[in-house]
Design brief:
single chain; alpha+beta; NE0471 N-terminal domain-like; 4-stranded antiparallel beta sheet; 7 strands; globular
Amino acid sequence: MDEIAIAKKYFETGIKKATRVEARPDYTLVVEFNNGEIRKYHMKDKLYGVFEPLKDWNKFKRVFISKGNGAITWELDGRILDICPDSIYLKGSDGAWHS
């Protein structure tokens, strides 16, 4: 499915909430949404600028879903780094927990 079709489907069916997130050693996030869909989001090429500290696997793997805004979040040395789950849904690929 191309990006336009994914975005159209996303907005037609309503905004999704992330319900589960898992960091993989290849710097991929696997995120499950409240509609049961699972998306994989590759972070390796995005680990620069504010996200550069996440090159450290011990920091990257501490990802969680913020209870406040539902963002995919890391807390590092008192700083919050986050990604909107909409971006992960729209830019990610179909995923599975065991792949």
